[in-house]
Amino acid sequence: MELRDRIAVVTGAGSGIGRAIAQRFARAGATVVAADLDLAAAAATARLAPDPERIVPHPVDVREEASVRALMAATIERFGRIDILVNNAGIGTTKDLVETDLDEWENVFAVNVRGVFLCCKYALPDMLARRSGVIVNIGSVAGLIGIPKRAAYCASKGAVVTLTKQIAIAYVREGIRCNCICPGTVDSPWVERLVAREPDPVAARRALEARQPMGRLVQPEEVAAAALYLASDEAAAVTGSVLVIDGGWLAQ
């Protein structure tokens, strides 16, 4: 699976899944614009790559239209096109519905849903003009089932899943493919922070591991491998799909 000479934009590339995807794409031959709210973190992603010149850090706030428009315009100006867009930037919450205040609800949707909408809106015109492009959205098993203490997160990731399908159908005859990866619990900085807040962090981590029948957390590199497949020509007939990577969680 190669991405030789492809230009990819990966949001949320400063850590976790986004960092792993940026690095995996770069190893596969792509030039990656590693976009993140934290530019220093995106720059660190570039420095960690085997070939740092393959990854270019760029600031973005996916909640803000002007910021997203600037990201896509800068990518096209510098590299001439956008071949691949990975909408990975996202945030989570740990509250049930009654506990969630309006500001928190709206912020989760602003990042997780509005961010996907805006990035697609400003990347698609270039793809459509060339009748070629791939979009990979990072959803979650939380977008497919209900999980306690995840009201806003479940709702937002459910929106990502269905938006993926709509984009796929709307543009399939225009040479655009759009798919969604739904990971289970990933061994990421967000999960580390979540566990650290618990009275017994060790027990909390074990509980997260236990809900996946495989008995461990998903690794960011495993999600990156799936993103590489979906972005590559090996997946030329795959669009509108939802690829679950959850250690067997949903099979129970």
Please provide the count of β strands: 7
State the end-to-end distance. 31 Å
Helix-strand string: EHEHEHEHEHEHHHE
| Main sheet attributes: strand count, strand direction, barrel closure | 7 strands, parallel
**Low-confidence parts lasting 5 or more residues at pLDDT below 50?**
none
- Total domain count: 2
pLDDT average, as an integer? 97
Q: Indicate the proportion of strand residues.
A: 15-25%
Rg to the nearest angstrom?
17 Å
The CATH first-level class of the largest domain comes to: Alpha Beta
CATH topology of the largest domain: Rossmann fold
Protein structure class: alpha/beta
Strand order of the largest sheet: 3-2-1-4-5-6-7
Number of helical stretches of at least 4 residues: 8
- Assembly classification: single chain
**What is the 3D form?**
globular
Q: What share of the residues lie within helices?
A: 40-55%
Layout of secondary structure:
Elements: E1 7-11, H1 16-27, E2 31-36, H2 39-48, E3 55-59, H3 65-79, E4 84-87, H4 102-130, E5 133-138, H5 151-171, E6 176-183, H6 189-196, H7 201-210, H8 220-231, E7 242-245
Helix pairs in contact: 1-8, 3-4, 4-5
Could you walk me through the main structural features you see in this protein, from its secondary elements to its overall organization?
The protein has eight helices and seven strands. The mean pLDDT is 97. With 252 residues, the protein is α/β, with parallel strands linked by helices. α1 packs across α8 and α3 runs parallel beside α4 (102-130). It folds into two domains: 7-183 and 220-244, NAD(P)-binding Rossmann-like Domain (Rossmann fold), CATH 3.40.50.720; 187-217, no CATH class. A seven-stranded parallel beta sheet has the order 3-2-1-4-5-6-7, with helices on both faces. It is globular, with a radius of gyration of 17 Å.
